[in-house]
Model the fold of this input.
Amino acid sequence: MTRRFYVTTAIYYANDRLHIGHCYEIILADAIARYHRAKGEDVFFLTGTDEHGTKVERRVQALGRDPQGWVDEIAAANQTLFAALGISNDDFIRTSEARHRRAVQRIFAQLHQQGDIYLDRYEGWYCPHEEAFWTETKALPGHLCPECGRPLEWTRETAYRFRLSKYHAQIEALLEQRDFVVPPARRNEALAFVRQGLDDIAVSRAGLQWGIPVPGDPAQTVYVWIDALTNYINALEGQRFARYWPANLHIVGKDIARFHVVIWPALLLALGLPLPGQVCAHGWINLNGERISKSRGNTVDPWTLIDRYGADALRYYLLREVGFGLDCNYTEDALVLRINNDLANDLGNLLSRTTQLINKFAGGAVPDPAGHSDGVLAAAAAAAIAGVEAALTDLKTGEALAALWTLVDRANKYVEEQAPWALAKDPAQAGRLGAVLHDLAEALRITAVALAPFLVAAPGRIYQQLGLAGAPTRWEETAWGRLQPGSQIRRGAPLFPRIEQVSRT
Ligand code: MSP
Done:
């Protein structure tokens, strides 16, 4: 039976456009989705926009805009950006869509009816930035938000609350499972939080205009977590639910990991639904040591980088440079270094040299190795692919690409060692010359197949230059020996032109 694989990103607040921190998350999820598809799995990859709540309401008020018009614009802009980045999501859920609103109201009503949600007069410390209530004990001294450090506001209101406390033992047991949350640092954090005890949480607010009304009580609006988190099931209408739920993997940033590993499983337990397989919490993209964020105003616009360097270069940089779970300091210099060293020099030159050598010494057709191969590149390819696979099971895209580059490096070195131009001078070495050229082309073909989860345009362009049709799609094509001798080389433009100067924005 075909394995199903359901992967999600967070849904992005529609208060502003996305920056490269968000791009990292969606590109990471895309690489994982593409890898599983290449493995022949039945993949569903979901992303979307989180369009309600005070963040958006405040923003549209400041701009004097109508909320729906504003979020329509942001959702469209995000989708255009995702298309430019080659994101292969299967659906895009917007929390202002009718399918989502209906489902949230149904879920709210069910939880209320069964007693997991109750009406309460609520008093507490509220962080408008994080949209979270905090008890006296959890607030930092001076009544600052334990999450973002901003001043909390004492808020008094009537609100519906969810009985999170009831699920305390189950959540603790879930977190004790080693692999529900990765990396372990996030699991330990969440466990420490849960062991302090869980308070019931407010799941509605009065006086919020822009949101989903509580069924039967229009003075109250469903807010934040029931609205946002349930997107993961609300996108699975009809047949899709049975086919894809529970999700295999939720990919989120470390700042929202806790909501996904405490509140989300508790909601699912209350709904009697199976729990997701794993929550992976990635680190932050920082700029000058500070998290890139719209509210800090230190954003880096992905469009500038796409226009300047192309989507593949940006994808490569983020997937190669960010260690899973760790923060990464973004600099344009580091991006240009990756383009010049890894993409232009290592990979681009290997393709250029190989196709040039085949044109020159084999009349432009991939030779038949005919028993003359020394097996060096076949062994290097097998080791590299095994390395990519091992790294990707842990979402370690940087290690995966490093493993793949051991093959690229080995092949470049092989050109020097074997010196085809010298072999060509000796007719007795014709068999060896053919095998060397074949093995180089084959190493490149395998590199293209293994690159397909990570990069969008380059794998097809490598295929084309090797005389192959289309673009690689199936992971099993990473097996050695699939390149047909006789394939006609079609040299093309350099795969990644060198960047001579780093522009500064
Ligand atoms: N809307 C909520 C998520 C609800 S999910 C049910 C939210 N939105 S967000 O737009 O603020 O963030 C969306 C995702 O982007 C989060 O996973 C967050 O961690 C990630 N990132 C935001 N800034 C980031 C960086 N600077 N670096 C890496 N990821 C970043 O939270």
Observations:
- The domain at 339-478 is CATH 1.10.730.10 (Isoleucyl-tRNA Synthetase; Domain 1).
- The two ends are 51 Å apart (CA to CA).
